[in-house]
Amino acid sequence: MPVTTHSIDFEASTTDNVIHLKVSGKLTKEDYELFIPELEQWIERHGKIRILFEMSDFHGWSVSAGWEDTKLAFKHFSDIERIALVGETAWEHGMAIFCKPFTAGSVKYFDHSQRDEAMRWITG
């Protein structure tokens, strides 16, 4: 079921454990309050999940959203198998390196031109 906030589109696959997050603008605490319950239901349903995190005109997180993201990462450290980050800028590429200590899963960055490859990797 798709959930949309002003900065996040959340789509969960109906056939597998893949969640697709499309983000733009700046993420806020309110964004997390809306999509975390959906994410946690998906974890309950599937156990380990995979996330395709697609960024377009993304400007990062507010301070409170960054804290929510950190709490989420620690709470679900072992629940995420893979994270594919799809972006368009050098700092987004750096996020893949920054994210690795916050999850037991594999994290890989893909440029927007490699979106199909990211989809194959996240579902493979």
TrEMBL record:
Pfam family for this entry, one: SpoIIAA-like
Superkingdom of origin: Bacteria
Name of this chain's protein: STAS/SEC14 domain-containing protein
Organism: Crateriforma conspicua
